[in-house]
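Need the bound structure for adenosine-5'-triphosphate, inputs here:
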Amino acid sequence: MLSLQDVHAAYDGIIVALRGVSLEVPRGAIVTLLGGNGAGKTTTLKIASGLLAAERGALSAGRVEYQGRDIARHSARDLVKAGLAQVLEGRHVFPHFSVEDNLIAGTLVRRPHRRQLEQQLEGIYQRFPRLKERRRSLAGFTSGGEQQMLAIGRALMSEPKLVLLDEPSMGLAPLMVEEIFEIMKALNAEQGIGFLLAEQNATLALRYSDFGYVLENGQVAISGKSADLAARDDVRELYLGVGRGAAAVRSAKSARSRRVAARQSIASHSLDT
Ligand code: ATP
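Answer from helper R.:
Posting the output first, comments after.
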């Protein structure tokens, strides 16, 4: 359904974010992107959602296809119309609009009739009963978990075939994160909606997805079925924090961050003097 072939991308023409990423999201699959900070997960999602140019980013090489069509130069609006919706990192609801008006904003590219709109809202409220309870509240006064549900609900109002979901777990309590992943799984199983998900919580992301790609420094380092990735020693040690080498990796990482901090402190000291 979505494929990236040898995609290179940069911001401002100089900050290289992706160095030849290839990946596939089959129809109706849940695919997860894993990787540390700055690995290129969000950039990959922005490329697929037509939002890269808005951040002065651009594709420098490669091909991006959605349903067999080259979409590298399509606008985000056209992609949403074609069934490719995105839920950005940080949730981004309209805080001064009610929960319901936020949901209705998700239909703007389609403009359904009143009756259709009511049916769609009812469908979202069945899936997210918490949003029904809060439908008249200002979105800015709802909890982080409710805002994440609202951002997903708004994307669903555009009737997507594939949702690009960036860090749904960020800043949320574990139970709320589970609830959101369960809803994603149900949407996938019952409505066939596909998901391409960027997530730092590798344990959960691998448990709920079909395929995974581990990005490192703008490249795909490891890929495969999620169950296979979750069983691999290197993935377990580096991304799931389990296994014999995990403690060594953690201590090497903290030693590295201590060295970086020490270097930065020396550099700023020599600038000051
Ligand atoms: P995180 O989990 O921290 O969001 P990520 O895996 O999503 O990380 P990206 O946000 O895609 O990684 O970043 C990839 C690289 O591109 C990083 O070096 C980052 O600093 C850079 N980058 C990301 N967004 C911008 C931007 N708007 N302008 C300039 N550079 C950017």
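Comments: Residues 11, 15, 17, 35, 37-43, 55, 198 surround adenosine-5'-triphosphate (CB under 6 Å). DSSP finds eleven helices and ten strands in the chain.
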